[in-house]
Please model this.
Amino acid sequence: MTTVVSIINLKGGVAKTTTTVQIAECLASEFSKKVLVIDLDPQTNATIALIGESKWKDLDTERQTLFHLFHDKLERTSYFDINKAIQTGVSNLNLSTLSLLASSIKFIDIQDRISDIAEKSAYVTNPMEVLKAAIFNNLKDYDYVFIDCPPNLGFITRNGIEISDYYLIPTIPDELSTYGIPQIIKTINDFKTTRHLPIKCLGLIITKYSSNSSIHSRVKTELPARLANIFDELKIPKAPVFKTIMPQANATAEAMEFGVNPGTFRQKYGRSKSGDRYLYEYVIDLAKEFIDYV
Amino acid sequence: MSEIDRGLEHLKKTPETSEDEDKSIPIAELALSAEAVIAEPNVDLPIQISDDRVEELNPPVSDSTPQIPQPTPAAQPNDNIEASLFSQDSSSILQAILTELKLLRGTVDLLRQEIVDIKQQEYTPRSTKTTLDNIGQKRSQVKTNIPSRKTLETQSRSKKTDFNAVSYLQDNGEDKLQEELNKKTDTELRQVLRSEGVKTGKDLKTIEREEMIQEIISNTKRRLKQGSAFLQD
Model:
């Protein structure tokens, strides 16, 4: 049974991509799970972190990025082939069970035109089901599929929500990063109702936590109540704040560099400690908690 | 004059020839000598052996044979006594006393050894390892009870309260929150305001109790509902 999870937050820089890559690598490496990462973010950060710039350039030349999937629908071409586009054995950890569907920076050029797909296809293709139509038959090959969404709730993100069983909200525990959480939950809930989707909130992950920040400390203690209040107001089932709190650590940024050869998962996320624990210990705890909740 | 000296003096005065006179040696005197030997077994008793006895023990060698001086073993005190006494052809009583003397000497030796052993036990210093272990244990006990410098600094600096007003409001509602705040002292209310960053410094000193409660409630409601404007259609 495949579980599809979208990683969403309206605010940029809250570690959506980092969280996606960390959990995906951890599940593939430490739990021997078959994992697919779908990079829907035009920033292409998950793609670069998992296959590097050189490989991405090859895929872009071969027209095998997700940009080309949508571009084909707009231009009525058919270059994109899902079986060619899915890259297996990705990450600098050479994980045979980790795969990637790459993004492209060219997404920025077409993201405002995706609604035109319906008209271009004579209303045969729903612009929110482009991804679903392309990948539906491949999803069964994986235990977990993670979708790294852009920091908005536009058509591209909705393509991810359309095929997701859950969505996760990574957030820095500060005022601005948490401000949009009610909006995310409400918008997805409305979309779910309209489209009759199964998607549920899996929870909220606190990222980039700085223990010496009084604001981080205060917001961290308030978040469970605030999240519960949102679910109460919307009258939908509650979701937890993950107990595992991802720390602000230089090792996190360093681990996203594809060009280095880190060796093992624990070496990749074990360069330095945060508090008295290595980063890989936090990631493993997060992955365990994730498995418990799904 | 000590007992031993008197005993020895008596032995010196003992006649050398007469067996009858030998028998006349007072037993009490000999007993005193024996006691002295027991008390000081290693004393070199200057007992002189009579000439007859010497001749008996060392028969004269013929003149034709050159006499080679033989090294004589060092005479032991007891041997001297025995020689002296037997030279006097001592009675069976004396022999019994000498036998008893030997036994007593053996006993004394044993006692001396025991005394030495006891003294060694008394003065043997405690094992260094044990002492160091004890010091280590005491040190760790003391160290455990002393809070670390970091803890002390944190305790002295931290005046945060554990009360989470936002969670309390979400779980119990506004009325219960007001009741809970009414139970708190002014100091605790100031701590809540300070921890939430609502008021600091002079503002905290001058603010009235009722105003503090209202500030906490309004701020808590705002925090709990943060971003909820987006929930409205």
